[in-house]
Amino acid sequence: MKIVRTVAEMRILARQWRREGRGIGFVPTMGYLHEGHLSLVRESKARTDVTVVNIFVNPTQFGPNEDFKKYPRDLEKDAAYLQAAGVDALFHPDAAEIYPPGYRTYVEVEGLQDKLCGRSRPGHFRGVATVVLKLFDIVGPDRAFFGAKDAQQVLIIRRMAVDLDLDVEVVTCPLVREPDGLALSSRNAYLGPAERKAALVLSTGLRWAEKAVAAGERDAGRLVAGIRSIIEAEPLARIDYVEAVDPETLDPAADLRGEVLVALAVFFGKTRLIDNVRLHL
Ligand code: AMP
């Protein structure tokens, strides 16, 4: 596995692969890798000729009071995982390589970026869309793999790819959970033992919602209220949002029919976790 630290070197390598007619798969991450990330890597390996994984804790997607500085990092362990998974290149640039002095250009996906997580994290999706567009341009992938864990993120990337005529197929991979239901996340490392236990209310709430819908519930307000009451019963949990929305527009779903995305964000102490489930009615 090649470890690439500069934009110039990454471009040369990707260009060489393209010249050889090899299809490039791309998996952007912030590192501190877990099975969720590795599921994207495996999908890329299965569907493309060469796989590039990016590890970049992107400063522009963090708010001033968020966890940029203390976001967990372990490059050595990550590199070992990726090597064992058969990844061809790990692209790990410095922040100054991606945002050199004088940097001023940003991508905004209007309407979608301000809903759900965007409401409590202003500027977050602007940072995400900007870095992903830059990375797409540097790597030039045929396919890029994103997790359904970050449902709003992948929707925004898809929208950006369509709107800007990007020549890349955006692939959404299923959300990977711990055996007890907790969605895998690098931020789970922040949780103390009591919080880790408490965090199960997220998947419990979403599973309850799936069952309620299977039993005939069609009122979005009642569904959201039911999830909220499960989460609020846990003293360590503080809800940021719980919403049932149209998965294309992220507007609140008035009644439950067709495709519905139930998404939530909840704080446990300072740790903010997200989870979601897609309902097909
Ligand atoms: P991150 O490193 O958290 O920015 O995530 C990098 C990529 O991995 C994103 O496309 C995420 O959606 C995806 N990912 C993170 N956690 C999971 C998970 N539990 N299941 C599936 N994909 C995930």
Instruction: Examine the secondary-structure arrangement and name the CATH architecture of the largest domain.
Output: 3-Layer(aba) Sandwich
* Oligomeric state as shown: single chain
Characterize the largest beta sheet: strand count, sense, and whether it forms a barrel: 6 strands, parallel
According to CATH, the fold-level topology of the largest domain is Rossmann fold
* Major sheet strand order: 1-4-3-2-5-6
Number of domains: 2
Compute the separation of the termini in Å: 44 Å
Low-confidence runs of at least 5 consecutive residues: none
Shape: globular
Helix-strand category:
alpha/beta
- DSSP strand count: 9
**Name of the CATH class of the largest domain:** Alpha Beta
Task: Give the percentage of residues in beta strands.
Answer: 15-25%
What is the percent of helical residues? 25-40%
SSE string, helix = H, strand = E?
EHEHEHEHHHEHEHHHEEE
CATH superfamily of the largest domain: HUPs
- Report the total helices: 10
Write down the overall mean pLDDT: 98
Spatial extent as radius of gyration: 19 Å
* Ligands: adenosine monophosphate
